[in-house]
Amino acid sequence: MHTGKQTLLLVDDKPTNLSVLAEYLAHKNFRVLTAESGERALTILPHAKPDIILLDIMMPGLDGFETCQQIKNNPAYAHIPIIFLSALNDRNEKVKGFALGAVDYITKPLHQEEVLARIQTHLTISKLRLELEKKVKQLDQNLHEREALIEDLNAYAKTVAHDLKNPVNVICGMADTLLESLPGLEPEIISRRTKSISKASWKLRSIIEELLVFATVSRTDITRGTIEMHPIVLQALARLTNLIQEKSAKITIQETFPSAYGNPQWIEEVWFNYLQNALKYAGSETHIEVGGKIDEYNNRILYWVHDNGESMTEDIAKNIFTQQHKPKADNDEDNHGLGLSIVKRIIHKLNGSVWAESSPNKGSTFYFSLNRTS
User: Fold this and answer.
1) pLDDT value of residue 270
2) Whether pLDDT at 361 is above 90
3) Are the C-beta atoms of 56 and 64 separated by less than 8 Å?
4) What is the C-alpha separation between 172 and 169, in angstroms, rounded?
5) Which CATH number describes the domain made up of 7-110?
6) What count of Cα atoms within 13 Å lies in the side-chain half-sphere of residue 84?
7) Taking the domains of the chain in order of start, what are their residue ranges?
8) Strands 31-35 and 7-11: what pairing?
9) At residue 161, what are phi and psi to the nearest 5 degrees?
10) Whole-model pTM?
11) Could you say which of 63, 148, 299, 344 would form a disulfide bridge with 321 (CB–CB 3.0 to 4.6 Å)?
12) pLDDT tens track for 207-218
């Protein structure tokens, strides 16, 4: 049983050497494991998981050099510092030991205080090295995420400026026309132009809300908590009222949804994009199904939006969440979309997953999963 102490594996074919040094180090608050051969050390290594290894060189069978080489050739154990012990004070042996990956070389007879000092020094160095590697890995990941975000932002910015101009021009033009000729206009014309202003205004609101969400995706201080999903789905649908009416879409929604852990604003944008995507690419008689369930096997919540549009190829379904695979509907004037690539980024930020499935004559289903709790 692991006591929480640092574990030391002592490998020496001399039982007397093992017992004396092992007893001393145990009194210095180490968990000491011993092996009397290189073969035995390799056998117990997966179970021992030592923090450091003291390895005698001159042993029958598998000697210290060969044992060290096998340890260093295994990625699972290559990080463990190895200190060689030897009765020979030979420079060539020392060079060979360091070349094999050892961190130190102590000549016998051993002085217990010196052995302890060397062990503590290399444990400290090992700890610092592992911490540095962890920080470098985290920096690399952050840099990769930042570069990907910049790439998405650049691609998104190219279309947003144009897409903002379209609804603004509609609003300005229709409003000016109404002001100039309101007394002489027929009610039907007034109604049609007013609807155009309303549609353009909702489009502007949608773009602005997506921009606000986009700006928060890279942040880490976003509030997360338990989400009641049904009202969020309804809010996303409310933003798509005009498109739903244009498509005369039939939308079937579960009466209840399982709750999940996340950020409500982010998740509303996920639903909005999934639903908008389904409305744009659904069949002529648009029918969309929205649901969710508990995935007991993976202890997660699974949500989906299913449409009755044309099926996707396997390649498109696999890559549709990347910026390079962004389908465009016929006569689609509003293709600014937050984008499925950003949807993927949001869900990944919440430690979830996104994917799509499609079958011939059965439409497509877009899924995302979230944790049940924090």
Assistant:
1) 93
2) no
3) yes
4) 5
5) 3.40.50.2300
6) 29
7) 7-110, 139-371
8) parallel
9) -60, -45
10) 0.52
11) 344
12) 776 666 666 666
Please report how many Cα atoms fall inside a 13 Å half-sphere around the Cα of residue 108, on the Cβ side.
15
pLDDT score, position 338: 53
Tokens of 204: 């502007």
pLDDT of residue 167: 75
Among candidate residues 115, 136, 137, 118, the one with its CA nearest the CA of residue 126: 118
Assign domain 139-371 to its CATH architecture. 2-Layer Sandwich (3.30)
Helical packing angle, 264-281 and 340-349, nearest 10°:
150
Amino acid of residue 360:
P
Confidence class of residue 163 from pLDDT cuts 50, 70 and 90?
A: low
Average pLDDT over residues 359-366: 88
Cα separation, 180 vs 174, whole angstroms:
10
Instruction: Work out the number of other CB atoms within 10 angstroms of the CB of residue 250.
Output: 13
Q: Is the dihedral of CA 14, 19, 25, 29 positive or negative?
A: positive
pLDDT at 86: 87
The answer to whether residue 44 scores a pLDDT higher than 70 is yes
Q: What is the pLDDT of residues 110-138, one digit of tens each?
A: 888 999 999 999 999 988 988 998 899 88
pLDDT band at 185 (very low <50, low <70, confident <90, very high): low
Q: Cβ distance 246 to 303 under 8 Å?
A: no
Quick one: pLDDT at residue 329? 47
Tell me the three-class secondary structure of the chain, residue by residue: CCCCCCEEEEECCCHHHHHHHHHHHHHCCCEEEEECCHHHHHHHHHHHCCCEEEEECCCCCCCHHHHHHHHHCCCCCCCCCEEEEECCCCHHHHHHHHHCCCCEEEECCCCHHHHHHHHHHHHHHHHHHHHHHHHHHHHHHHHHHHHHHHHHHHHHHHHHHHHHHHHHHHHHHHHHHHHHHHHHCCHHHHHHHHHHHHHHHHHHHHHHHHHHHHHHCCCCCCCCEEECHHHHHHHHHHCCHHHHHHHCCEEEECCCCCCEEECHHHHHHHHHHHHHHHHHHCCCCCEEEEEEEEECCCCEEEEEEEECCCCCCHHHHHHCCCCCCCCCCCCCCCCCCCCHHHHHHHHHHCCCEEEEEEECCCEEEEEEEEECCC
